[in-house]
Design brief:
The complex is a heterodimer. Chain A folds into two domains: 19-55 and 161-294, no CATH class; 61-133, no CATH class. Helices cover 62% and strands 8% of the residues of chain A. Chain A is rod-shaped, with a radius of gyration of 32 Å. By secondary structure, chain A is an alpha+beta fold. Chain A has eight helices and four strands, in the order αβαβαβαβαααα. Chain A has helices at 23-59, 74-86, 99-110, 137-146, 157-199, 201-209, 214-250, 273-294; strands spanning 61-67, 91-96, 123-129, 150-154. A four-stranded antiparallel beta sheet of chain A has the order 2-3-1-4. Chain B is an alpha/beta fold. Chain B contains seven helices and eight strands. Chain B has helices spanning 33-40, 66-70, 88-98, 103-116, 132-144, 162-177, 189-195; strands spanning 22-26, 52-53, 56-57, 73-76, 150-154, 181-185, 199-203, 206-210. In chain B, a hairpin with a 2-residue loop joins strand 2 and strand 3 (56-57). In chain B, helix 3 (88-98) runs parallel beside helix 5. The mean pLDDT of chain B is 88. The interface between A and B is medium-sized, with 28 and 36 residues.
Chain lengths: 297, 217
């Protein structure tokens, strides 16, 4: 039975079939890779924030260990050191810690011994530095020495260096994992393009022999795979946002854990994912398709 | 010409076709008829020698120049190679789309051509639903839709009955009258005999010409 064909209403159909049976598997694989990439990006942001937080805390503070001199009692030496430091430029506050706090600090190392208070434990002064113009360890030591206070200043510089190094390592590790996943996505898409071209060799051959330019044929596959990867990227990004939001809610006010403080704004890291996935796919498909078409006579 | 590291399929071929001429090429199976057509429609490279087309050596033309050359050649493939996901109309319009023409400029021409080859009622149909003869005519319509300078047809009457073969032949004759050079590879000696057209005989990798015999179609 013939149907009425209205020539005037005819619109050209796409050169490539709309859907292929293997599309589902490819979308799934790319979506999983995008999901992992999004989680990595969110993790890097959270780790970066944690490292910045720790560094900020440590750079804003210094600890001074005070040793009494002559007949001076440890408490009196600590009080005098706190007074000297409080008057030093670049110090917001200096406070002598109660002996109990010093004992609490060493108790984990020595155990719960009964005569801990008999040990000659040095007194500590906690110094909060001025946020805008913080005093350095040298200035604090000089101020204390000037007032004849026997003390050692710890400005946490060793820890800060370590934390900064650890933060940088986490950041580069995250970027490395992210690039690895992007490369894997590109390789999967290149493989799929090759398979797609092999499966659609009839289309490629007809277009090629009918005078289609290599770039024109390659673009068909480029657009097809970019759309597919963009869609897969969207699925992966949505899944990552759902998981990130669940972790944020489950983790309470501090995020997933205090060590990895996931913020709501970190979830925005997934926004470029569909676009990036589409771009990776477009480049991979373009390179693969052009290579294969150029191999034809 | 040879495939991979295999033996030469075609050797010492030296012939020319005048513009606007109509030839058959025939020979036993495996003689290299399809290979000869492939050389002309730029689907194969000669291992040595030249293929002159449109006043230039197309065998050694840069890849960037070949698409434009291919657009001047219409091909009816032996296995037709229709795109199964496209309708009859879309298949027939394919070369015009590739040439960058606007649908409004050619859709009436395509419809007219399809009616001319007897597919006027099947324009919407998908190739899988077409009968053998209809598929053959669609492949021919696609090959001639952009009025090529050269039409190459590989066994174009292989899957159709005698009446249809005659109809297809007349279509080629009509196109030839409009100025297209036609070269048809076929086994159909009856068609060749009744056509009154010159024949190129391909045998043992070599070609020889036979002048036109019999009545004109």
């Amino acid at each position: 039975m013939s149907e009425i064909f209205d020539v005037q209403r005819w619109r050209p159909a796409p050169f490539l079939p709309e859907r292929e049976t293997r599309d589902g598997a490819l979308i799934f694989v790319v979506a999983v890779l995008c999901f992992l990439a999004c989680l990595t990006a969110m993790g890097v942001l959270a780790a970066d924030r944690a490292a910045a937080g720790w560094t900020g805390q440590l750079t804003g503070e210094a600890t001074v260990i005070v040793r009494p001199r002559g007949g001076e009692t440890p408490d009196a030496a600590a009080a005098r050191a706190a007074e000297v430091l409080a008057g030093t430029a670049g110090v917001a506050e200096a406070r002598a810690l109660e002996p109990a706090k010093a004992y609490d600090l060493i108790r984990p190392w020595l155990g719960d011994v009964s005569d801990l208070e008999d040990l000659p434990v040095p007194r500590l002064v906690a110094v909060t530095l001025d946020g805008r113009h913080p005093a350095g360890a040298k200035q604090l030591s000089a101020a204390l020495a000037g007032q004849n206070v026997d003390a050692t200043v710890d400005d946490h510089s060793i820890w800060i260096k370590d934390i900064r190094r650890a933060g940088g390592l986490v950041r580069w590790l995250g970027v490395g994992v992210f690039l690895l996943i992007a490369a894997a996505a590109g390789a999967v898409i290149a493989f799929a393009t090759r398979a797609g071209l092999a499966a659609r060799r009839d289309v490629v051959e007809v277009l090629h022999l009918a005078g289609a330019e290599d770039g024109f044929i390659a673009r068909l596959f480029q657009v097809r795979f970019a759309q597919m990867a963009g869609y897969a990227g969207l699925i992966g990004a949505i899944a990552a946002v759902v998981l990130g939001a669940a972790l944020r809610i489950a983790g309470g006010g501090e995020g997933l854990t205090p060590a990895l403080p996931l913020a709501w704004s970190d979830l925005l890291a997934v926004v470029p994912c569909p676009l990036l996935a589409a771009m990776v796919a477009a480049v991979a498909a373009q390179l693969t398709a052009v290579g294969l078409i150029r191999a034809m006579p | 010409m040879r495939y991979g590291r295999g033996p030469d399929v075609l050797t010492s071929l030296n012939f020319s076709l005048a513009p606007g001429s109509f030839h058959f090429v025939t020979g036993p199976s495996g003689a290299g008829k399809s290979s000869l057509l492939k050389l002309i429609y730029l689907a194969a490279q000669p291992s040595k020698g030249l293929v002159h087309l449109f006043g230039q050596d197309v065998a050694h033309a840069p890849a960037s120049a070949k698409p434009q050359l291919r657009r001047r050649i219409g091909v009816v493939f032996q296995d037709l190679v229709l795109l199964e996901h496209l309708s009859t109309f879309d298949n027939a319009a394919l070369p015009l789309r590739i040439a960058g023409r606007k649908p409004a400029d050619y859709r009436n021409d395509v419809a007219e051509l399809l009616s001319w080859v007897g597919l006027g009622q099947r324009m919407h149909a998908m190739p899988a639903t077409l009968a053998g003869g209809e598929r053959q005519r669609l492949a021919i319509a696609r090959a001639v839709v952009n009025r090529p300078d050269i039409l190459l047809a590989d066994e174009p009457t292989g899957n159709v009955d005698h009446d249809m073969a005659v109809r297809i032949f007349r279509l080629f004759v009509e196109l030839n009258r409009l100025g297209t050079t036609v070269l048809i590879a076929t086994h159909d000696q009856d068609l060749i005999a009744r056509s009154g057209r010159p024949v190129l005989l391909l045998e043992n990798g070599r070609i020889s010409a036979r002048p036109a015999q019999g009545p004109l179609a």
